[in-house]
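User: Before I run my own analysis I want an independent prediction to cross-check against. Here's the chain; please return only the structure tokens and, at the end, one sentence I can use as a sanity check.
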Amino acid sequence: MDQFHVPVMLEEVINILQPRPGQTFVDCTVGGAGHAKAIVERIIPGGKLIGIDRDADALHAAAELLSEYRQNVILEKSDFGNLEAVVSGLGLRSIDGILFDLGVSSHQLELAERGFSFRYNAPLDMRMDVTQPITAQELVNSLSERHLAEMIRKYGDEKWAKRIARSIVERRTIRPIETTLDLVEAILAAIPPGAKGGRIHPATRTFQALRIAVNREFESLQAGLKAGIGLLVSGGRLCVLSYHSGEDRIVKDMFARYAGRCTCPPGLPMCSCGAEKIIKILTKRPVTPSEDEVRKNPRARSAKLRAAEKL
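Assistant: Structure tokens:
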């Protein structure tokens, strides 16, 4: 089997999570099970790994890679925003360790028909769970110009969000934007020539923003982190790999809140963010991949690892 996805910062993740025999772990984004395999090898005998993913292809790849450990592995098709329901549905009340590896997998990017990548001309889909109703095509053809600009700016940190949104709306009045190439052409038409020579492709940020919106990734992350922190046993650890500044900001802010640091704006008469000290932050600054790892796996270059321990 071809490797579904190269696990990022595998050694660092294992060193932080410290899985031991007999423990129960959750990999909330099991993908091709690169991290999961390393975890389950360390929790046997007697341990249990719950692997969650909303992508059926990912679960098939994980089942194949973890086949020799099938007695110790449970794979669940779900959004990790439903983490609490998944765990309670299995009759469990507490977890020793949790991993979130966010973003899109190498496999998803390489499958043209999934519509995640601007490198292939394909239907504009971008759903991690292909049974969900809303596709990227539907969003780009239905959202108002203002909402498109807000989405591209918020989720993509795109400087030219307003111009891109205007270009999309102008083009869809002539004919619907149906493929990845249609969207790339709209983006390239909007960005000034002098701004197209950067390190990344001009369409990168808009495609990223659309993927995040289609899959409601930020909302799922907030729900999953809250549930995960609640499910951990005392001394249990939670580790998050993020690849986007917005994701990292959510993780940083939620860790701060549950470490007892008020994140409310200055001047409020009383705290309203719900800060309570129930975790200890293990990473004062995010851990990043080594130069050697980035050379071997360029998609690791933007990765940031944050971790916390339940008090």
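Sanity check: Strands lie at 24-27, 48-53, 73-77, 95-101, 232-242, 279-281, 304-310.
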